[in-house]
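Worked example 2:
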Amino acid sequence: YDLLVIRLPDDFSTESPGDNDNGPISGSARFFTDEAIAAGETVPTPTNGVVDGSFTVTVSDEADIRITAADVTGVEDLVSVATPLALNLDSETIDLDNSEVLPALSVTFEDLPAGGITLSDGTVLTPASNVWTPTGSPADAGRAQLQALAITTFPVHYSGRITATLTATSNEGVPASESFTIDITPVAEPV
């Protein structure tokens, strides 16, 4: 039985919707041996040297998602529609069988200034409304919007740090996330 191998398809999971609606793989095995005769048993019976056993195989999901998110820095009062601060974000699936897509993308911003910020797609984020999600479908459209995402306005004379988290969830239900910071450095004001 040391040589027993169970080969499952690429990206298989017993926890993913659609992969196996019945949950874990269960089975039983019967093992035969001649150890009873070798041990000197003289009266063979149908159960001598026979062992029955059962097994369960559970294959966990894994996030087949690559996220690109790095810290970015801008300068106070230099971010505008004409000179946006690119966030340089990306997310893609890296599964082997190309069965996964990213129907759910979001970026959550924390520590936003009271006056809010405006993103390149026109979304205005405030401390009370701080989550960006792409519009429309398919999932590739969301990825393109994510890649183009930038900040176009901050409140006048804003400097500080905003923390953000990019979260991507595949159609197989496994999320991945990456946090990054947006630092706006202050500029000395004329006296």
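The chain has two helices and 13 strands. The longest helix spans residues 139-148.
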